[in-house]
Every structure is written in structure tokens, then in C-alpha cells.
Specification:
By secondary structure, the chain is an alpha/beta fold. The protein contains eight helices and 14 strands.
Length: 299
């Protein structure tokens, strides 16, 4: 039976050529692009992929585009991979062998090998991902970092054969920073829908430190030398950045004019009740000074 490979992309030119090269012998390649501003689409077209577009809108993650991308596949069995995941020849062979006699199985977990820069993160393996399924038996929720819902029996490839695992290409430092921005934006989208959540100094000072300790010591990043320290520090900064954006959101929305507004020197009377007391004192003082100046000019 034929297999379609589906890849979600957005500004993925750094890794896409290598990813496409690894899947060129599958029956079909579908690249679902979220309006990239680099040459992602050109790379995909040159490789012979079927390129479709999903509107990016405000999305900073691929999950809302997953169902659309899967439905563009022509074949019944779909292997969905990210723009930074490489399929090994052994994995391809195993999947084609499986679809000849799938039985009642509708989906399959595939192990994944993760890296910290140049080091294999053994502590995260097998990091199973549900990425192979029948097109008509899957639904992918649009929420950030969600997992597909497969209707039917699910199997797993054995983790003791690492050659069957997806290879998760290591992220560059620039990509790590960009990922922090995208993930924090996705987090903020969920945060604004949960009112009355305060951000305190504890969230900004203690939680990032706790994240570093957890990643570096408990999760074993310390085993990977400098690369492991960079990974733990990046995770820590991500925690700080996420809560800092939450705090900014809370504060900015208190300003007159909304999130993008600036606090003017003078406010209309009907706006005074919406500003903190100390700001109102400053405004009243400035109003008094203006009145005094006006009276002196009249004299």
C-alpha cells in the first residue's frame, strides 16, 4: 500500500532540504506551509512535493494546520513529520512492511532521537510520537503541543532498534531563541483566556531557577557538558520569558488605550476610575499646575 508523507512548515529552509531528501522515495510528499517568508516553498517545490498553504493568521505553532495538512494527502496511510525530523531508511522499510498487513491497527507510535546541539539526549529516548496513522481515523486538536486522536487500535515500533527512530535534528541557538518566542506567544494565547491569574516575583525569580535545576540535574543535561548547560539555561530563560510576557500583558491592559496604548498626561473624567490611585494623584497634580499657569497668564 502507498504512503503519503505530510510535513508542516513555516520558515523551515534551514532543515527542509535534508528532511525532504530522506523521504523522496515515499509515494507522495505534501508540504503544508503557513505562509513562509523565506524560500521554504521553493525548496519544497524543487523537491517535487505537493505544496499547499494554511493561513498563518496569529498562529505561532503548527497544530491548527495539522488536520488540514493530513486531509491533503492522497493515500490512506499518512506519516506526519515536522520540518526538522529525518526519516531513516530502516524506518521507511519498516513502515512499508507494516502496511502490507496492518490488521486492525489504525495508528503507530514511532520513537524519536533528540539532540542537544551535537549530543544525543539518551535520557529522553524513546520519546514516542504518534505520527503514523490512517487518514480517516485521526483528528488533531488545534491546541498548542497537542497529540492526535486516533480512533482504533494503536501500536508501537520497538525502541530497542534505534535505527527505526525519527532523527530530531538539533536546533541552532537562533532557533532555540525563536522557539522560546513562539512558545511563549502560544502560552500567552492560552493565558489570556484564564482571567485572574497573577504573576508574582516568585514566578519570575524562583520558577526559572527551578527549571534550570530540574533540566540540568534531574533530567540529566549535566551529562552532556557545555551543550547540556546551554540546554538547561535555555529552558530556564524560556520559563522566565513566558512569565514576563504574562506580567507585561497584565500591566499593559491596565493602561488607558488598551494593550498598545500609552498612559497620557491628562485623562478624561470618565477614564479616571480605571487607573491606579498613584497615577490619578500625578494627573491631579499636573492639572493643578496647568490651572495655576493658566491663571498667571490671565493676570
Amino acid at each position: 500500500m502507498p504512503i503519503s508523507v505530510v510535513i508542516n512548515t513555516y520558515n523551515s529552509s534551514r532543515t527542509l532540504e535534508k528532511v525532504l531528501e530522506a523521504v523522496k522515495s515515499f509515494d507522495e510528499i505534501v508540504v503544508c506551509d503557513m505562509e513562509s517568508t523565506d524560500n521554504t516553498r521553493e525548496i519544497a517545490s524543487k523537491a517535487g512535493a505537493k505544496v499547499v498553504t494554511f493561513p498563518k493568521k496569529h498562529y505561532n505553532y503548527a497544530d491548527p494546520a495539522r488536520n488540514f495538512a493530513i486531509r491533503q494527502a492522497s493515500h490512506d496511510w499518512v506519516l506526519l513529520i515536522d520540518h526538522d525530523e529525518v526519516v531513516t531508511p530502516e524506518l521507511r522499510q519498516a513502515l512499508y512492511k507494516f502496511v502490507k498487513r496492518p490488521g486492525e491497527i489504525k495508528g503507530m507510535y514511532i520513537p524519536r532521537r533528540n539532540f542537544i546541539l551535537d549530543r544525543f539526549r539518551r535520557c529522553t529516548y524513546p520519546d514516542y510520537q504518534l505520527r503514523f496513522f490512517r487518514k480517516g481515523n485521526v483528528n488533531w486538536p488545534p491546541e498548542f503541543n497537542s497529540e492526535p486522536e486516533v480512533y482504533g487500535e494503536i501500536s508501537k515500533l520497538p525502541s530497542n532498534h534505534q535505527e527505526l527512530a525519527l532523527i530530531h535534528l538539533p536546533a541552532s541557538i537562533n532557533h532555540l531563541v525563536d522557539r522560546i518566542k513562539r512558545y511563549s506567544a502560544a502560552d500567552l494565547t492560552n493565558y489570556v483566556n484564564e482571567p485572574n491569574k497573577k504573576v508574582t516575583l516568585f514566578h519570575l525569580a524562583v520558577l526559572p531557577f527551578s527549571t534550570f535545576i530540574n533540566t540540568y540535574f534531574l533530567k540529566g543535561s549535566m551529562r552532556y557538558g557545555v551543550a547540556g548547560f546551554i540546554s538547561a539555561a535555555t529552558e530556564s530563560f524560556g520559563t522566565f520569558y513566558r512569565h514576563a510576557k504574562r506580567y507585561e500583558h497584565n500591566v499593559r491592559h491596565k493602561l488607558v488605550g488598551g494593550y498598545d496604548g500609552e498612559l497620557p498626561a491628562l485623562l478624561a473624567e470618565d477614564k479616571r476610575e480605571h487607573i491606579p490611585q498613584y497615577e490619578q494623584i500625578l494627573i491631579e497634580k499636573e492639572t493643578e499646575l496647568e490651572q495655576a499657569s493658566h491663571e498667571s497668564h490671565n493676570c
